[in-house]
Design goal:
Function: Catalyzes the Claisen rearrangement of chorismate to prephenate and the decarboxylation/dehydration of prephenate to phenylpyruvate.
Low-confidence stretches: none
Strand content: 25-35%
Number of domains: 4
Mean pLDDT: 90
Pfam family, one: CM_2
Oligomer: single chain
Distance between the termini: 41 Å
Number of strands: 15
Shape: globular
CATH superfamily of the largest domain: Periplasmic binding protein-like II
Helix content: 40-55%
Catalytic activity: prephenate + H(+) = 3-phenylpyruvate + CO2 + H2O; chorismate = prephenate
Radius of gyration: 24 Å
GO biological process, one term: chorismate metabolic process
Main location: cytoplasm
Largest sheet: 6 strands, mixed
Structural class: alpha/beta
């Protein structure tokens, strides 16, 4: 006699039980990740071990296929997320040891652009949630107000978008870094999911006005070019754009923003996936009045600003110094020096720890070659690159 089929309610109950077990196992795994970090304090081993990660993934893929009939891509995607979380947990633990003054600060005042629901607000919450830090949120109307709020001591940190994979560098922020006394102490890359939101779901042909920040306008330019007769209006942030649409209460008006943020303002999605690029990410930096100490066991980035002479080949000479010391440059951005026509300041992001011997020697040489050089910060790199394995 065959077993009686489970009812839908029974299946859902079983799924709930399995989900609870998964949560328990993930919690146990996280606890063990911290124990791994503690052992690395004694051995001074780096947080990441690429060989170990590759071996782990290969074993998981093999077992998943042979024992549980699970797809290799499914296993890889799932454990990339788990490994990334483990790495960030261990980095956070080691950073707390390197900066004991932060352990006693479970509450932080954070300044960011826009109101609740802006991308800068979402980035702030994401960054500090990893550190189990509660926030006092200080929304600002301009990027300059963010830096001034931190410089004056009214905020402990500021969160600023620095570049986007679609629209490129955010020049206003780079220009602020040229004059600020603040240091970069962290970074975060946030997926940007632009959506058209409004008071109700309507046809695109019925839209007359669209509100947003200038950056989403650029990042969704291809979609916007197909809208006929629609007036584009700018706001201080995507959150302010959504607040404006909610206040107007008109069906022919919409905003560009995050769908989840739109719900905070009682708005509903009209159309999603409107960005030029499907992989649309914004990199944010976290700034503070004091620099942080970065554990030597953690992958670090160092950001410099420098100006060179006007002689031919001056910039090339500085870049050759980096190559000679084996320092990888991930970003080079030039901005005009205010008040000095035709002169430029260069912003350089390096995959290097400031305290490393090769970096210190490179800084000495660069100081001799440049007219001006300043370290904007050395901070943990939180762009966790997935471990690569071949999928047969």
């Amino acid at each position: 006699m065959s077993e009686q089929a489970l009812s839908l309610d029974e299946i859902r109950l079983r799924l709930n039980e399995l989900d609870d077990k998964l949560l328990q196992l993930l919690s146990e795994r996280r606890s063990l990740s911290i124990e791994v970090a503690k052992s690395k304090v004694e051995t001074a081993k780096p947080v990441r071990d690429a060989t170990r990660e590759q071996q782990l993934l290969v074993k998981l893929i093999t077992n998943g296929r042979e024992k549980y009939q699970l797809d290799a891509q499914y296993i890889t995607k799932l454990f990339h997320t788990i490994i990334e979380d483990s790495v960030l947990l261990q980095q956070s633990y080691l950073q707390n040891l390197a900066n004991p003054q932060h352990i006693r600060k479970p509450l932080a005042r954070v300044a960011f652009l826009g109101s609740k629901g802006s991308y800068s607000h979402l980035a702030s919450r994401e960054y500090f949630s990893r550190r189990n830090t509660e926030l006092i949120e200080l929304n600002c109307e301009r990027f300059k107000e963010v830096t001034q709020t931190v410089e004056s001591g009214h905020a402990d940190y500021g969160v600023l978008p620095i570049e986007n994979t679609s629209s490129g560098s955010i020049n206003e922020v780079y220009d602020l870094l040229q004059h600020t006394t603040l240091y970069i102490v962290g970074e975060l890359t946030l997926p940007i999911e632009h959506c058209l939101v409004g008071t109700q779901d309507i046809r695109l042909e019925a839209l007359t006005t669209l509100y947003s920040h200038p950056q989403p306008h650029q990042q969704c330019s291809e979609f916007l070019s197909r809208l006929k007769g629609v007036t584009l209006k700018t706001c201080a942030s995507t959150a302010d754009a959504m607040k404006k649409v909610k206040a107007l209460g008109r069906s022919d008006v919409a905003a560009i923003g995050n769908a989840s943020s739109g719900k905070l303002y009682g708005l509903q999605p009209i159309q999603g996936n409107i960005a030029n690029q499907t992989e649309n990410h914004t990199r944010f930096i976290v700034v503070a009045r004091k620099a942080v100490e970065v554990s030597p066991q953690i992958p670090a980035k160092t950001t410099l600003i420098m100006s060179t002479s006007q002689e031919a080949g001056s910039l090339v000479e500085t870049l050759l110094v980096l190559r000679r010391y084996g320092i990888n440059m991930t970003k080079l951005e030039s901005r005009p020096i205010m008040g000095n026509p035709w002169e430029e300041m260069f912003y350089v992001d390096l995959e290097a720890h400031l305290a490393a011997d090769n970096m210190q020697e490179a800084i000495l040489e660069l100081t001799k070659l440049t007219k001006h050089l300043k370290v904007l910060g050395c901070y943990p790199s939180e762009n966790i690159k997935p471990t690569q394995v071949k999928l047969n």
